Design the sequence.
């Protein structure tokens, strides 16, 4: 039996609806602790404790806020294309008393506001599916990371098992999707995400040469391989 993979349905664009953005922020503050811990454990596994980091597509800033508390010697910059999201992220950082340690800016994944080879760490969580030009983004990641710098990119992949997708959609509707505007959010994001094969092909065509790609249920993780492990 041949099962045809659904075509990607692009969800490019930014969340500029303030009501939706504030709802997303509220839900993320409530439910994103475990995802934050998982990203932290990957950063710790890479031995990164200090230096400069950038979070791309930061949304309400939940990841850099959590990580800047756990890793106080890392100086974070966090960007989002949506001015509304940046405004909310800044308010969240003030509320968490870390606004002096994170520089929030409006900025694009395709033109990262960093000098060449200046970063120790780059994060991009749940945002790749918004990017219609992933190779351009990967090339930017390669440009801004210093030699030995690390990256952690996490997103959905639309070739995940339909059982996982159905289960997570149910969780989404229970925990995140109560607001009518957010109800279809998870499925729309999955439909806009890349398959593993597509993502692998984009990586191969990009300048980001040291990526390891693997899956966890509905997630696709693309991480840098530490220098000593490269062949
Ligand atoms: C689903 S949210 C993820 C937010 C956050 N990383 C998280 O996991 O909580 C994706 C974010 O990416 C932003 N975004 C979309 N396209 C972008 C681009 N080209 N450059 C930077 N940010 C972008 C959106 O505005 C949105 O805030």
Sequence:
């Amino acid at each position: 039996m041949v099962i045809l993979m659904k075509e990607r349905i692009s969800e490019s664009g930014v969340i500029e609806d303030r009501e939706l953005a504030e709802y997303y922020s509220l839900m993320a503050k409530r439910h994103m602790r475990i995802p934050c811990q998982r990203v932290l454990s990957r950063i710790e596994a890479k031995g990164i404790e200090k230096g400069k980091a950038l979070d791309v597509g930061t949304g309400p800033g939940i990841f850099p806020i959590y990580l800047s508390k756990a890793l106080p010697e890392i100086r974070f910059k966090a960007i989002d294309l949506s001015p509304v999201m940046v405004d909310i992220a800044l308010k969240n950082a003030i509320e968490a008393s870390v606004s002096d340690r994170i520089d929030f800016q409006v900025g694009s994944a395709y033109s990262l506001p960093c000098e060449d080879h200046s970063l120790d760490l780059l994060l991009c969580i749940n945002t790749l599916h918004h990017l219609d030009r992933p190779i351009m983004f990967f090339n930017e990641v390669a440009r801004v990371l210093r030699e030995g710098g690390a990256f952690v990119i996490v997103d959905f992949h639309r070739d995940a098992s339909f059982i996982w997708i159905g289960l997570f959609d149910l969780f989404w509707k229970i925990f995140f999707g109560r607001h009518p505007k957010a109800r279809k959010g998870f499925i729309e994001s999955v439909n806009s995400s890349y398959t593993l094969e597509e993502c692998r092909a984009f990586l191969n065509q990009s300048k980001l040469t040291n990526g390891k790609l693997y899956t966890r249920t509905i997630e696709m993780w693309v991480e840098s391989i530490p220098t000593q492990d490269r062949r």
Remarks:
- The beta strands are 51-56, 74-80, 102-106, 119-125, 145-156, 211-216, 219-224.
- Residues 18-226 form a domain with the Rossmann fold fold (CATH 3.40.50.150).
- Residues 54 and 77 are 5 Å apart (CA to CA).
